[in-house]
Specification:
The structure holds two protein chains of two kinds. Chain A is 90% helix and 0% strand. By secondary structure, chain A is an all-alpha fold. Chain A is rod-shaped and about 65 Å long. Chain B has one domain. In chain B, helix 2 runs parallel beside helix 8. Chain B is globular and about 75 Å long. The chains are: A mainly alpha, B mainly alpha. Chains A and B meet through helix 1 of A and helix 1, helix 2, helix 3 and helix 8 of B.
Chain lengths: 42, 238
């Protein structure tokens, strides 16, 4: 059995999942901090 | 730990720590992944599928460590009522759940060519699946309590009680007859050959830094939202 399709799938899940988590958390942090700064400056 | 309970003091440390942990995570993960995929030899027994180990073990570690952190935050929330403890618990839960899910997915993918099955209801796999369900339960409970304006004490209690599952996962390979292999790495040594082992600490530390960075991002986001809400409430009343 060729193991490489299994290896590629596993790495795609973990690397893709980690990247998606990081981008999602980063974008929501930036948006929340930007909004909080805007509100406090008002 | 009490020193960091003040949100202003926490943010002073969290702002640079978010960037630093992310900056450490990326090269460590890349080096570990390149080493694990292209440099290490194939295992004499498992063949090429051994390469999944370099991402499966960090996912398993962070799924469990995440609940460990959540349990500590829950304890701090229940005992000392630290304002940041509930924020930390809510920030950790979805990230821990994601790593527990990735652990189950990579384990299942590894199991197909190695064991000949995608899934087996043995102690280690079942207790890890329970961990994922516990995370989902915590997320639902914490969200429901927050919507009702509660302090999240029920969720904290759930976080503390759920920690019972951690030793069950850890010792499941010793307590029950299992398809999952026993402990390969202990405090005193390892049964993994050095030429196969070296990328593992790189991905372990790399993903741990990434986890820390993402949790800090989520905590900062929640604190910023709370700051904005408080300000808006104040302006509405004046």
């Amino acid at each position: 059995m060729n193991h490489w399709p299994f290896i590629i799938s596993a790495y795609a899940i973990v690397l893709g999942g980690s990247a998606a988590l990081t981008i999602w958390a980063w974008r929501s942090m930036r948006a929340a901090e930007k909004f909080a700064d805007k509100v406090t400056r008002r | 730990m009490h020193v960091f309970a003040n949100p202003a003091r926490f943010l002073k440390i969290a702002r640079p720590a978010t960037a630093w942990t992310l900056a450490l995570a990326v090269p460590l993960i890349l080096a570990g992944v390149i080493g694990g995929l292209f440099v290490t030899p194939r295992d004499y027994l498992q063949g090429e599928s051994v390469r999944i180990l370099y991402i499966h073990v960090p996912s398993a570690w962070l799924g469990m460590a995440g609940w460990g952190g959540l349990a500590v935050a829950s304890l701090m929330q229940l005992v000392w009522r630290h304002p940041l403890a509930a924020v930390a618990g809510r920030a950790i839960a979805p990230i821990g759940a994601a790593f527990a899910a990735m652990c189950l997915a990579t384990g299942s993918i590894w199991g197909r060519p190695t064991w000949g099955t995608w899934w087996e209801w043995d102690g280690r796999l079942t207790s890890t699946l329970i961990l994922l369900f516990l995370y989902l339960g915590y997320i639902a409970l914490a969200s429901a309590e927050r919507e009702r304006g509660g302090e999240g004490r029920m969720a904290a209690l759930f976080g503390l009680v759920g920690a019972i599952n951690l030793p069950i996962i850890h010792y499941s390979v010793l307590w029950w007859n299992t398809l999952h292999q026993g402990k390969s790495i202990t405090l005193t040594g390892t049964t993994i050959a050095p030429e196969l082992l070296w990328p593992l600490p790189l991905t372990l530390f790399g993903f741990t830094f990434l986890f820390t960075s993402v949790v800090l991002m989520r905590m900062r986001a929640e604190l910023a939202r709370a700051r904005a809400e408080a300000r808006l409430r104040r302006s509405a009343t004046t």
